[in-house]
Specification:
The structure holds 2 protein chains of 2 kinds. Chain A has strands at about 5, 10, 20-25, 35-40, 45-50, 60, 70-75, 80-85, 90-100, 110-115. Chain A is mainly beta. In chain A, strands 2-10-9-4-5-6 form a 6-stranded mixed β-sheet, with no helix packed on it. Chain A is globular and about 40 Å long.
C-alpha cells in the first residue's frame, strides 16, 4: 500500500523556520511528483507547492514564494518543505500528497500542525 | 477568497442525488481537463474521489461522478448515504502552473 508518513511541525515564533518531512513507501517515489497542501484551522484547502519526480522543477503558491522551499531525497524516498520567515497566517495543518500539478492528489499524509505564534 | 467558487452547503435526503458545482475561469477549469474532487471527513485527511474531470480512482463508488461544461465542473453523488456527509473540495490545474482549490462545500444528509 502507498503510505505517506509525516514528521515535523510544532510551535514557532513569527520570523522563525521549520522543516516538514514526508516519508513515502509503497511506490516508486522518484517517478512521481509530490505536493504540499495546507489547511488553516476551520478553513479550506490551499495548495502550497509541488515538485517533479526527479526534483528539477518546483512550483509555489504566491503567498509562500520566496519563503518556502520544497525538495526531495529520492535515495531516501522523502519529501521536505523548508519553511522560513514564517508568519501567523502560515498557521495550518500541512499535508503532503502524491501527485503533481495536473494529477489528483492521492493519497495524502496524515498532516502536521504548524502554529506560528509569539 | 478562493480561486474556484463552490456553494457553501448542499443537502439531500438518503437515496437522493445531489450536485456540487465548481466555477472557475478559462485559465483553470475551462482551460484544462485536470479537475479533481476531494472528500474530507472531520479531522481526517482529504480523499481523492474524482480526477481528470470524470475518472474515479480504484475503490471509489460509482455513485460519485464528475463532469464539466465550460468553466464549471460538477460532482454528482447519487443514492446519497449517511456516510457521504462531509466537506467536498474541487481543484484545478491553472495556466500559471499552480493548483487552485474551491472554498469547499459541506454536504448534509437530512
Amino acid at each position: 500500500d502507498v503510505l505517506l508518513l509525516q514528521s515535523g511541525g510544532g510551535l514557532v515564533q513569527p520570523g522563525g523556520s521549520l522543516r516538514l518531512s514526508c516519508a513515502a513507501s509503497g511506490f516508486t517515489f522518484s517517478s512521481h511528483g509530490m505536493s504540499w497542501v495546507r489547511q488553516a484551522p476551520g478553513k479550506g484547502l490551499e495548495w502550497v507547492s509541488s515538485i517533479s519526480g526527479p526534483g528539477g522543477s518546483t512550483y509555489y503558491a504566491d503567498p509562500v514564494k520566496g519563503r518556502f522551499i520544497v525538495s526531495r531525497d529520492n535515495s531516501d524516498n522523502t519529501l521536505f518543505l523548508q519553511m522560513n520567515s514564517l508568519r501567523t497566517e502560515d498557521t495550518a495543518v500541512y499535508h503532503c500528497a502524491k501527485g503533481h500539478l495536473r494529477d489528483g492528489f492521492d493519497p495524502w499524509g496524515q498532516g502536521a500542525l504548524v502554529t506560528v505564534s509569539s | 477568497q478562493s480561486a474556484l467558487t463552490q456553494p457553501a452547503s448542499v443537502s439531500g435526503s438518503p437515496g437522493q442525488s445531489i450536485t456540487i458545482s465548481c466555477t472557475g475561469t478559462g485559465t483553470d477549469v475551462g482551460g484544462y481537463n485536470y479537475v479533481s474532487w476531494y472528500q474530507q471527513h472531520p479531522g481526517k485527511a482529504p480523499k481523492l474521489m474524482i480526477y481528470e474531470v470524470s475518472d474515479r480512482p480504484s475503490g471509489i463508488s460509482d455513485r460519485f461522478s464528475g463532469s464539466k461544461s465550460g468553466n464549471t465542473a460538477s460532482l454528482t453523488i447519487s443514492g446519497l448515504q449517511a456516510e457521504d456527509e462531509a466537506d467536498y473540495y474541487c481543484s484545478s490545474h491553472t495556466a500559471r502552473y499552480t493548483v487552485a482549490f474551491g472554498g469547499g462545500t459541506k454536504v448534509t444528509v437530512l
